[in-house]
Fold these 3 entries.
Entry 1:
Amino acid sequence: GGAGGATAARYLRKYDPDRVRVTLVEPKKQYHTCFGGNWYLGGFADMADLSHGYKALDRGNGLRVVHDTAEEVDPENRKVRLSGGSMLAYDRLVMAPGIDFRWEEVDGMGPADAEQVPHAWKGGEQYRILRRQLEAMDDGGTVAICPPANPFRCPPGPYERVSLIAHYLKQNKPRSKVLVLDAKDSFSKQGLFQEGWRQLYGDRIEWVPGSEGGLVSRVEPQAGKVFTQEGFQEHTPDVLNFTPPQRAAAIARRADLADRTGWCPVNQKTFESERHPGIHVIGDAAIAGAMPKSGHSANNQGKMVAAAIVSLVQGTAVPEPSMANTCYSLIGPEYGISVAAVYRHRGGKLVSVEGAGGVSPAEADAFFRMREARFTRGWYQAITQDIFG
């Protein structure tokens, strides 16, 4: 029921309202988007602004929403068992399960420790925990943010978080700073982010790349300590935001849809699983060629898989995929940057189209950045309406 699943359900009905019946299984009655979550941490959005319900989708007439958890998938018999005990039969199954974390790769930390050291990489309560910690921190403290290695959900997300937490500190705790301990040596829109950091936050942000001591080797949640590989340097920040390495959610792995990478290989034209026919995997869990793991990608994939399934049901040719991803990031409430790309299906893979899309110019004035910030909010309103109705 997130960006991919809700979109797929809505567009399946839209593309063939007469013959296709759709059941959307989603445990939450209110869905909180991760995109936009950093605005909440920055102090200029409320959790209610990120909350979306399913009433516009659950109107009967061939589309119903079941608020339950899908526990097991039986690919051979084409059934899904729900936690409430009921079984759903299907002709085609779309899975948009999102991510889980590779906790076994994190020395000293497990799932239960996220209450103490939040990852805030899934919407809702994790964001509330991190914001409460920021609010409780004394002025003059340090917030350590630890982004994971690739691939992971929303590549620019950690750096927008760095920006907007720095904005919150500048407004409310001006003697505080942000320390970024990064598993990587480079990141999405790096030049644009770092220029924005210099302009808005001066020396409040310190970014440490992985090869220079940023790669985290151990976390001690109770002590609030983090250790990095380069000489096993110890850091004890006042607030620690650690995001673990990622993979497809557990239900996809239990259904044997993921390969050794932890992600789900699919036919990148139809998003049908390469491991089990009749199951389509979209969104963050899927291996989707050059497309990044983002809300916009999932939304586009939801529309594309709906078109592919309707074509298969009708016995017509499956359309050639043409999809886009747009990723807006706020460095401050009135300072926005973006990157966009177009993807086509070529040689069995989704590849980016040369010369299409683009990135915000490096040399832009304050008015240009302000307009992009306003486009960011407009994008959020438009895409959530497209997803949830």
Entry 2:
Amino acid sequence: SPSHALDNGLGRTPPQGFNPWNCFGISRTGTCKLVNPALPPPGCHGFNESVILAVADAMVSSGLADAGYTHVNLDCGWTTGYRHETTHELIVNTDKFPHGLRWLGDRIHEKGLKFGIYLSASKAQCCSHGYNNANDGSDGFEQQDARLIASYGVDYLKYDDCDQVNQSYYAMRDALNSTGRPIFYSIHGLQGAVA
């Protein structure tokens, strides 16, 4: 169905690239939780800093980047599942990303690629639902999370729908636009257009 979008220069061509969801699973511990257990990918393992950088290198060396596959995205699993007690900032899983996400984004950009990330329009991200009192969803924290990912140099946001709060999609749209950074907004789950 038709959608309404802001005329901000993004989305004139669909972003293409890599997302670890189907290839590497979503486990925070490194064990693979397959999206489709009937079709296990070879070498399935949790994604981390070194895996993402290896993917970025492969996209460049294989010619995929030259063919327009320029986005290297993180999916659910880059946080610890929680926010900082007092600042409420999302806590990066430093076991998986020891140099932090700004550093990772810089390395991806140095290769001529774009950096993507995952958030959820809910109280907890999809892969955090098994944790007691997980609170790494962006509902109610849209402005803070948009500023955070902009500070990482993010170019693309996948905004997911686990127990989504529909109003959060609109709030995130406005929050992303208020950062002043061009971030492609990819939504999952909300009927109708919000970008």
Entry 3:
Amino acid sequence: MSDLDSIRNAITNTAEGSALVPGMPLDGKPTAIEEVQATWTRYVGDEILKMKPRKWLVGGWLPLDSLVLLYSDPGVGKSFYALSLALQVASGGEWVGENLEAMPVLYVAAERPTDQRDRAEAWGLHFESGLPENFVLLEATRPPQLTNALDVAAICEEIRQTQTRFVVLDTYSRMTLGLEENSSSATSPVVEALDQIRRATNGGTVLVVHHAPKSGNTPRGSTALLGGVDMTILLSKSDTQVKAKVEKSNAGREPSPVFYRLESVTLPPEPGEEACRDGAVMVAAAAPKQDVALEGLIVTMSRESFPNGATRRDFVASLRLDLENPKLSDSKVGRALTSLHRDGQIRTEGKAKATRYFPIVSP
């Protein structure tokens, strides 16, 4: 008998009350198909519109009742971004030009909590404000693990006790120690754990801080994680600015990228010490000016002059000749190449000075 025939027989027998649908229930008690169907809600035709529409914490950027994945290369500023956002949510501040409703926030600092302490102090000094009372930073002697049912239950209980609506888990890798990230079978239970945390927020938002792989603009690890979240936000760095871009949104069209910068803040000396400490806070910044003409010339040059790829130095030398501008700066060409790469108009291989830029060949 085939597996399909076995399932059909099980369903038929269940209807007669003598067997169970395979895999149900977990507690071993008989469950009829009707009892399963009783948990369903049916919407017919226009009745679908009776369902609650998507609501937003920040329009286009942070959907409510959702899982959001924030990721970047190391050193770009994802923890600065996550903490700044969390403090703005807790204080009812502003984000992407929108006034926020103040709500309880839980920040699980599973990675370098002392850094977050100093960043929070810098945030308070910059905005001339005390830290919001409904902001809770959780430091644990052992980072809670998303693979541990008891740890997940403890986080959910903390959320319920504090009525938290916005949760930050920083970072995914520190909260999944030993996990085979590239395995979908290992990652799927973690996605379910994240969903449990989301449900505990009673319609709130869970922001998961993660890393990008060594190459590419997708989150590191299995696609099960990417498929399990509602939105992904990629941070990238160019010169002194940090660019935030929605790469995936299940709720609609991605908004335009937004830019930030790290602003230095002098922290007061510790008790008994004389030297001040250095701190920083992430603040909004104007979008960098794009040299559309230069970028267009680079795209054309990559296809016609460098179909097999070229370094930035090659582009600079060729552009100086082509434009008859020996003073064309290396950094200006570099910014244009970075912008084109992030917009998917050219691709790269290699790192640092060895990076080569290639034209995108249409299939």
